[in-house]
Design goal:
This is Argininosuccinate lyase. With about 120 residues, this protein is of the alpha+beta class. The protein is built from one helix and seven strands, in the order αβββββββ. The strands form two sheets. It has a four-stranded mixed β-sheet, with no helix packed on it. Strands 2-4-5 form a three-stranded antiparallel β-sheet, with no helix packed on it.
């Protein structure tokens, strides 16, 4: 009986840690590119698959932000992100440490033709 009680207590104490680990990966994505973003993909760096578009049917207009909340299938802090713009162009970032990032702001540089991600 005491063994079952200890096991249940251990599981109950672990649950907040699992929820906390999941929420550590959530972040706010801010679009400052000057263009609408149609699709956003986030996948573990260790995987070659992007999975599903986390925007679903929605889009992210320039100057707007979206809270990205997801249930990761991999227990890792390093994630890759890909965005697809309304015109079909794409940008990718590798090895983003989502355990230490709470905000990602995307900026388009017209002179260099590149998009950079500023993390906080």
């Amino acid at each position: 009986m005491q063994r079952h009680l200890l096991a249940a207590l251990g599981l109950a104490l672990a649950m907040p840690s699992m929820a906390e680990a999941q929420s550590r990966l959530d972040f706010t994505l801010v679009n400052r590119t000057g263009y609408e973003i149609n699709e956003v993909y986030v996948g573990p760096t260790s995987s070659s698959s992007w999975g599903r578009d986390i925007m679903g049917q929605g889009t992210l207009a320039d100057g707007r932000s979206v809270d990205v909340q997801f249930s990761p299938s991999a227990a890792t802090c390093e994630w890759d992100m890909k965005v697809v713009y309304a015109d079909g162009d794409q940008s990718e970032w590798r090895k983003m440490n989502l355990c230490s990032i709470s905000r990602v702001t995307l900026h388009w540089n017209r002179q260099s033709g590149t998009t950079r991600a500023v993390t906080e």
